[in-house]
Amino acid sequence: MLFDPSDPFGYHPPEQTIGNERNRNVKYAATEVRRCGDRILATPDAFFLDRDGTLNEKPPPGEYVTSPQQLTLLPGAAAAVRRINAAARPAILVTNQRGVARGLMSEIDLAAVQKRLTELLREAGAFLDACYCCVHEKGDCHCRKPSPGLLTRAAGDFPHLDLRNTVMIGDAETDVLAGRAAGTATVRLADAPGGTAADLVAPDLRTAVGLLLEGER
Predict the structure, then answer these.
(1) Which of 4, 50, 129, 204 is catalytic?
(2) What is the pTM of this model?
């Protein structure tokens, strides 16, 4: 079962494996990376990833991806996850999906969207090791980012992980603040550097993952 309504934190897909495929044809052009802090790790033990705006195209403000047909991966996102997989690091999704609490989508709708994300990544030879979703209204829980509940829940499910040796990557400052609250290094995805508490600013997930794994730009 992809989404258990009794567990508001999310679901765990079945274990999957791929070969250590590494696509050397991926190039990083016209990218701008800005080092902001001291917490960036040479090779994080795990990657916490936001969903909308990080893996897939983000809907307009106030709207949500409510059906599988609305979910489109961002360029390079699947390749980035595939590189995390090849490096034998967990790729863990942590996402706010308040649309459920607001009645704009059901938990079944969310499960269908998550299933589509899994399918698109699998088609590209990539996979997520675990997914955690907060479906609550703002202020109703301790798991909605910028609170660190989703990340600390994952740490409990992956007991070998030390959150201090992991990284949180997302396109919003709430992702950054959740990572900081949990004690992770943080990367903000943005077209241009701006005010952020993140340790690093990068234009997209592919660039961020390349830099963290191999120092690429």
Answers:
(1) 50
(2) 0.82
